[in-house]
Design brief:
The protein is α+β, with helices and mostly antiparallel strands. It is 17% helix and 29% strand. It folds into three domains: 2-118, Immunoglobulins (Immunoglobulin-like); 131-226 and 493-507, Immunoglobulin-like; 231-490, 3-Layer(aba) Sandwich (Rossmann fold), CATH 3.40.50. The strands form six sheets. It has an eight-stranded mixed β-sheet, sandwiched between helices. Strands 4, 5, 8, 9 and 10 form a five-stranded antiparallel β-sheet that branches. Strands 14-15-11-19-20 form a five-stranded mixed β-sheet.
Length: 509
């Protein structure tokens, strides 16, 4: 502990790891918890934030500094997942915490000077000594160009290590670039004016420490020589034995599903299935989530796991189905959320598990939705933690059912989940008194942190600045959710980086 008397208290602790959290360059499982605490009376309408150079502490941006929660004696604290065995620089800042003020870069008065500390080692995870990239190309001598700062590149030579898929193509290996466990941006060049950029233009970006680049796609395993793109299917009229209306399921199958027949996949179940695929539609709302396009891009970059997505269509009884029991909404019949949970758990999920190659356990099963869909997602995670181990609540309508939020405090044992919350900070105030449930999502976050859950590992919370309660906002924030719930780094890489046994084996290929 480092103490400054009545003003500052900093405690650095390493505790047993749970399953969960956020990370913008490392799996939540690989982060270590560090407790930040500061004793200071900042006055009504203000909170203490911790600002640091790590991405998990805002990456130096005060508008993305992490708000601590208040405890007795004017002590502000939180346990936050950060990279292990790393040098961390941070300070505490007093900020106005209203929805209008939190996005302002001028909102922040330092309470302490910057301090530097070394974070604890992870008890079981050891980052790679170096990053490695295997590249398949017919170029005579490719080079890797890594962006060291915006627009500035450092070049790394590649070594031929074996044959490619066809005559004239070779496997090339680059290593020793980037920082293990963190994101890296790069491109490839043939040295004669030819460049290999990511599909659609721009740099490749990945957090994988060992990857293979083939036909514009990054993999953490050895893929088939030709990999098909993602595709979508539908299953119509899925009957509900629970007494609800039948509905259509819309299924996204990731790249290579047909070629990689020995691979099984995590599943993300999403409510309001009509709204999640594509970008526009003919009805209301006119904007869709673009879940398929976003996943295609994240998966191709090695930023997300290859995942099956099941969009569960809503029905005219949406308000009742997405509201947990005992909570009528606006005078309308409500409280059928228990039946909807049973429908998804006991009818939809067994059908999907029987039809597709899924990883059916809770650690590989996620549920997500927005507004009332966010409310019912949190309820499903609390009610069925052995089924749904990952939960995402976009702009959750927690105001519609206070009992769900109360359970975050009252449930005797919280799930070992990853729970993603978010909100916007713009638009008209809702019945919670703040735009898009801004205050309620912070309250839900703080309830979990007070119970010992760890930010960035068990819980991830973000605010979409300038965003309102609509599909455009949820589309924009969906990548953050995926990076937390289903990052590619969760899976160990099986890419082969060793040279061929005999040089002549591939030189004569």
């Amino acid at each position: 502990m480092i103490s400054r008397g009545s003003i500052t208290k900093f405690t650095l602790v390493c505790v047993a790891l749970c399953s969960a959290g956020s990370a913008r360059g490392m799996s939540p499982e690989h982060l270590v918890p560090v407790e930040f605490a500061l004793q200071h009376d900042v006055g009504w309408g203000n909170s203490v934030f911790v600002q640091g150079d790590a991405a998990e502490l805002g990456g130096g941006d005060v508008t993305r500094a992490v708000k601590l929660y208040y405890t007795a004696g004017a002590v502000w604290r939180a346990r936050i997942g950060v990279p292990p065995s790393a040098t961390l620089t941070y300070r505490y800042v007093n900020r106005a915490d209203s929805a209008a003020a939190v996005a302002q870069a001028t909102n922040g008065t330092p309470l302490t000077a910057y301090e530097t500390t070394t974070t604890p080692a992870h008890p079981s995870y050891m980052p790679s000594a170096t990053k490695s990239l295997v590249y398949l190309t017919a170029w005579a001598q490719p080079s890797l160009e890594v962006e060291s700062s915006p627009g500035v590149f450092t070049s790394y030579s590649l070594t031929a290590i074996g044959p490619g898929r066809v005559a004239g193509e070779r496997r090339w290996l680059a290593s020793g670039f980037g920082v293990p466990g963190r994101a890296v941006r790069f491109r490839l060049t043939d040295g004669a004016g030819g460049y290999d950029y990511a599909p659609g233009g721009g740099l490749y970006e990945t957090c994988l420490d060992r990857a293979l680049l083939q036909d514009g796609n990054l993999f953490n395993y050895e893929p088939a020589p030709a990999v098909s793109p993602s595709r979508k299917e539908t299953i119509a009229n899925v009957v509900s034995p629970q007494g609800l209306a039948s509905r259509t399921l819309r299924i996204y199958l990731p790249r290579g599903y047909d070629q990689h027949t020995t691979r099984s996949y995590p599943v993300l179940y999403m409510h309001d299935g009509q709204n999640i695929f594509g970008t526009t539609g003919s009805g209301f709302p006119p904007v869709r989530w673009n879940v398929d396009g976003t996943l295609d891009r994240l998966i191709s970059m090695g930023l997300a796991r290859e995942t099956i997505v099941v969009g569960i269509d809503n029905t005219p009884n949406r308000l009742a189905e997405y509201t947990p029991p005992g909570a009528p909404l606006g005078g309308l019949p409500g409280g059928q959320g228990d039946k909807y949970l049973a429908y998804v758990r006991d009818t939809v999920k067994p059908l999907i598990d029987a039809t597709y190659r899924t990883l059916p356990d809770a650690a590989n099963t996620a549920v997500a939705g927005s507004s009332l869909g966010g409310l019912i997602s949190t309820y499903m995670g609390l009610e069925a933690p052995s089924v749904f181990g990952k939960v995402a609540a976009f702009s959750p309508a927690y105001w519609a059912n206070a009992s769900v939020v109360a359970r975050l405090t009252d449930t005797p044992v919280l799930p070992a989940w990853r729970h993603y919350f978010d909100s916007g900070n713009a638009g008209a105030s809702d019945s919670s008194g703040s735009p898009d449930g801004y205050a309620l999502t912070f309250d839900a976050r703080d309830r979990l942190l007070r119970r010992g859950q760890i930010l960035n590992r068990d819980v991830y919370h973000t605010v979409g600045y300038g965003q309102q309660h609509n599909e455009s906002a949820w589309q924009a924030r969906f990548p953050l959710c995926v990076r937390f719930l289903l990052p590619a780094e969760d899976e160990p890489s099986t890419v082969q980086v060793a040279p061929a046994a005999s040089a002549t084996d591939w030189m004569l290929h």
